[in-house]
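Tip: read the tokens left to right.
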């Protein structure tokens, strides 16, 4: 449990004890005052009775006046005794008071802790606090992120009914490139939202995406099974459609890839990766030798981003086939882990190329290029068509971080001039 919880619980327990102990210790002072007042009234009564007796014996008072005065004196004596004293039970004795105090001090805190652990929601509070810490953690602090993700996982396993927690855990594992763990977290997310078909479909689609990244772009049985689960619940689940389009494109089934990606355009026109999807559609039409529709022929850049001009080193031009896949990645400066903030897919025959990377090329709404100040851009020619770097791929990066801005500044040069080795 957190320090904040214990401080708040202690304050409340002390407050509860004060309600119990105050009357135990302070009722005696009031009772003593009442006793002193009663004794004073009794002494005054006796003194006045003695005076009446003396006056009656001396013949000053006759029988009638003597009787009347005695009755009035007796009545005034009763009026001085509070009615509450006749009906209110009074805790008598120092030992009784101490016993009640001791039992209260022991029983109230113990009962509070026991009942809260039995019926309280501390597990949800701890999950929420861990999620806040993870959301505030700098992405470059990988060790702390790993520790927090482990804590969140333990608390979610103990109390799994928390869709927001599972979603955050899955996204965190994706940033850490722990794709198998991410796929598992997204499956747990699917189980926690199984009363909402569309949300469950998205969870399975995200799980398929994590498995796809983990298999380095291979359409394994696990990836296919997750895609089928997603599309059974929602045939238009965009993560599943995107993966099917990528797989079809890699198999040179360009017409099929276009169908999947254009379906995403129809059902999710504001998708955060719509820029990359349109690039894929344009490229698929190009491979078919056809002109793309006007809706995807050109997409205007908007918002914060960076503009780069990518070229291939002169001595590598004869080594790179024209149909080699070209990936452009933008990552936050000084951050090496996790998915990039922007990804564009082109081909080697488009080089040299000038392109503006902005939020149209984001991989997720939570990680966008407009949310950071500086990025590093890497261009990679992939021989296998996989997004993961492999030996034999050609690559180049910006020498210094590029400032993200709203304007269309002069493009920053990115030269592909090295070949990756084992």
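Filled-in amino acids:
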């Amino acid at each position: 449990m957190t320090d904040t919880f214990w401080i708040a619980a202690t304050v409340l327990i002390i407050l509860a004890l004060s309600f119990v102990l105050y009357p135990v210790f302070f009722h005696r002072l009031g009772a003593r005052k009442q006793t002193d007042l009663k004794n004073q009234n009794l002494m005054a009564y006796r003194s006045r009775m003695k005076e009446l007796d003396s006056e009656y014996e001396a013949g000053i008072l006759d029988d009638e006046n003597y009787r009347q005065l005695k009755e009035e004196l007796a009545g005034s004596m009763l009026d001085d005794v509070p009615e509450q004293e006749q009906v209110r039970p009074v805790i008598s004795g120092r030992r009784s008071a101490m016993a009640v105090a001791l039992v209260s001090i022991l029983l109230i805190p113990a009962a509070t802790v026991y009942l809260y652990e039995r019926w309280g929601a501390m597990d949800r509070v701890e999950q929420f606090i861990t999620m806040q810490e993870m959301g505030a953690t700098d992405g470059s602090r990988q060790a702390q992120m790993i520790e927090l993700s482990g804590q969140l996982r333990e608390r979610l396993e103990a109390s799994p009914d928390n869709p927001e927690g599972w979603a955050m855990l899955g996204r965190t594992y994706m940033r850490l490139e722990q794709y198998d763990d991410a796929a598992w977290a997204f499956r747990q997310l699917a189980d926690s939202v199984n009363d909402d078909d569309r949300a469950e479909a998205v969870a399975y689609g995200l799980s398929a995406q994590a498995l796809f990244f983990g298999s380095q772009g291979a359409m394994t049985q696990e990836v296919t099974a997750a895609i089928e689960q997603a599309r059974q619940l929602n045939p238009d689940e965009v993560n599943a459609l995107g993966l099917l389009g990528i797989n079809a494109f890699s198999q040179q089934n360009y017409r099929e890839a276009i169908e999947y990606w254009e379906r995403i355009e129809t059902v999710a026109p504001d998708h955060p990766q719509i820029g990359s999807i349109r690039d894929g559609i344009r490229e698929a039409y190009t491979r078919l030798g056809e002109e793309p529709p006007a809706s995807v022929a050109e997409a205007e850049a908007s918002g914060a981003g960076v503009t780069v001009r990518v070229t291939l080193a002169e001595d590598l031009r004869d080594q790179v086939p024209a149909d080699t896949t070209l990936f452009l990645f933008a990552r936050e400066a000084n951050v090496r882990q996790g998915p990039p903030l922007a990804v564009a897919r082109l081909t080697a025959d488009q080089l040299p190329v000038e392109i503006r990377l902005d939020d149209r090329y984001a991989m997720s709404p939570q990680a966008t290029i407009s949310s950071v100040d500086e990025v590093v851009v890497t261009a990679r020619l992939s021989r296998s068509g996989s997004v993961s770097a492999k030996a034999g791929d050609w690559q180049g990066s910006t020498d210094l971080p590029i400032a993200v801005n709203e304007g269309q500044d002069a493009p920053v040069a990115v030269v592909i001039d090295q070949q990756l080795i084992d």
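DSSP finds 14 helices and nine strands in the chain. The domain at 185-300 is CATH 1.25.40.10 (Serine Threonine Protein Phosphatase 5, Tetratricopeptide repeat).
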